[in-house]
Design goal:
The chain has 303 residues and is of the alpha+beta class. The protein contains six helices and 18 strands. InterPro entries: Phenazine_PhzF-like. This is PhzF family phenazine biosynthesis protein.
Amino acid sequence: MLTYDIVDVFTDRPFAGNQLAVVHGADDLSTAQCQQIAKEFNFSETTFPSSRVEDGTTYGIRIFTPSNEIPFAGHPTLGTAWVLRERGLVKGPDLTQVCGAGPVGVRFADDDRVELSATPRDLLGPLDDELVVALLQDVGLSLTDLAGPVWVAGCGLTFVHLPVVEDAVVRADPSSRPLRSYAADFARVGEARDPIEGINLHHVVADDGAGRLEVHARVFVPGLSVEEDPATGSAAVGLGMALVAAGRLPEGGGYAITQGVEMGRPSQLLGRVEASDGVAKRCHVAGRVQPVARGEIAVPRPS
């Protein structure tokens, strides 16, 4: 049997935010066995951290959706770090997670938030109208709903950041078309280092009075069997890059994202991007983690 923790990430209370299963002691499991466990939990992501922790601060991690292994994700990064600290397996406020996209910094703040820091990897765009119209139609919208240039950006998992008018966020329908079907269209814009897997549909509401932009977002990831995600840290860090490129945060700054409301799992993500001269240099996203359950799960038979 393997032990596991279930936590909710990007929320100040249990049974909101984004669910995560963290499975321990799975170092010798094959990819197929990890995938079976992730499918059994059927959360947007399940993680398998390495049992080996160097200097109490550096550890490896594998991240799976119900259908695929992915190189990077936000709420699994924060949730796994929180679980490992709760179990006494890591120490100190600053950690390094090593995932498929490389090392990712994780910091525990004094206000109980956990923050990840990632390096920009992909920035393509702005996309042309023909491709934008097709992407909008996939989520039940039209060009009249568009509210700015569309950028493709990410720090390990790449998203189409689609800005729309406020009511369009609520009116949108989850897309069932994997973005890989647009591979040739994206290739004409530029070469992406990481998979382009989701649509980050968002509206910049206003300045929240604290010097941050206020954002309402929904994220659809049909190619990874995630119809809609309630809180997406990987999309949040990529959004920082898109906001810089679109001129909303040319010298960097903060933004607060509300996501998951339409799913009944309200989430709060605090983004921050460092930039100069209109170029994003470093991306961050923070949130709180809530424990929900702990137990054991059987080891799948090797295939």
